[in-house]
């Protein structure tokens, strides 16, 4: 594990290089961090780690660690144009904050102790909050940071109490031991309260509909790197936590899952309808993330034998797709200086190459064959059907509405009449095409071999 953590920790000090290489050196170091997990991590590994009792990896954490390491150099590449007018000390701090966030995320995924996981889970709040409130574009970034802060802290206090309760009941917080130790039965109301207090922090982070109000605000006000890491990794931290703790809460009867599972499926449909009402491009993509992650939430709560595989595939696929969509939205914003859909229409007349990338990203978001997203959605829908047949209604409607709002997003940004203020726009850059290609390549590779992210 140290061979992954140490290179990640060294990304920050590389910002002390001269100004001409202030982006090149950290990006090169981050690329090395990206390559190491691809060569060393095996998704079929077990959770135990003989050389280290605190850190390890298995089929749940390895795909998400690879995704995190893959996105770090992409975040640095995407931020270069936006930070071009920023002073060198501010750029150094920005890169160091991203490296710190990456380090805390990796340690959260590697943690073999529940309390260590909780500490790292909470530590990710600080660099994310600084990224949003310091480098956001508008004054509303402070309000968005406050929403993110209080939602996270309020929901995490019950989780800490439940972790302490687990320690009192079993005498250990080691995940390998907890997976083999059944929870002690309690009266029904105690079981329900304990179950809700354990899951609520992850339901806010993922987030479930009704606890999602912090996410659109955070996405709209965050810089491009903040939006990428929020959608691609931080939301998956909630799904990862749910996969971990639902295996421990075996004493809870399945009927308790019904209200939240129904809310998750209803939220997937509702947020898809909300997407059709959005006028801000980043807000639309943020609500689409809520819709997709609602399916992951429902799948995890259903606790079917396909739950680990389907939820993991869909989380990795959505991480790549949402990051790609936010990058494309940022490309539009850098050219038109607005995210309002009605003022960004007709972009295919000035940037046909970006329109091709938009088409590929929208195809992935709709889970068209043969994309990797289709594999994830088919597995998730099969898992939900195995749990209850009536879920065909809500999942079918949400899948249909996903296609509707994705086509609306593509049409509103690329087609129709070009505004008069957008007739002279700068051409596309090699950096932008490379950024899109590095999002597309892992998705295309995983399409040919989905077992790399399988959690069976």
UniProtKB/TrEMBL annotation:
Pfam families: Oxidored_q5_N, Proton_antipo_M. One of its GO terms (molecular function) is NADH dehydrogenase (ubiquinone) activity. The keyword Transmembrane applies. Residues 111-401 form the NADH:quinone oxidoreductase/Mrp antiporter transmembrane domain. Residues 1-108 form the NADH:ubiquinone oxidoreductase chain 4 N-terminal domain. The keyword Transmembrane applies. Its EC number is 7.1.1.2. It catalyses: a ubiquinone + NADH + 5 H(+)(in) = a ubiquinol + NAD(+) + 4 H(+)(out). The chain crosses the membrane at residues 21-40, 60-79, 91-110, 116-136, 148-173, 193-215, 222-243, 255-276, 283-301, 313-333, 354-372, 384-408. It is found in: Mitochondrion membrane. One of its GO terms (cellular component) is mitochondrial membrane. Keywords: Electron transport, Membrane, Mitochondrion, NAD, Respiratory chain, Translocase, Transmembrane, Transmembrane helix, Transport, Ubiquinone. One of its GO terms (biological process) is ATP synthesis coupled electron transport. It is a multi-pass membrane protein. It is an enzyme of class 7 (translocase). Core subunit of the mitochondrial membrane respiratory chain NADH dehydrogenase (Complex I) which catalyzes electron transfer from NADH through the respiratory chain, using ubiquinone as an electron acceptor. Essential for the catalytic activity and assembly of complex I. Belongs to the complex I subunit 4 family. This is NADH-ubiquinone oxidoreductase chain 4. It comes from Paleosuchus palpebrosus. The gene is nadh4.
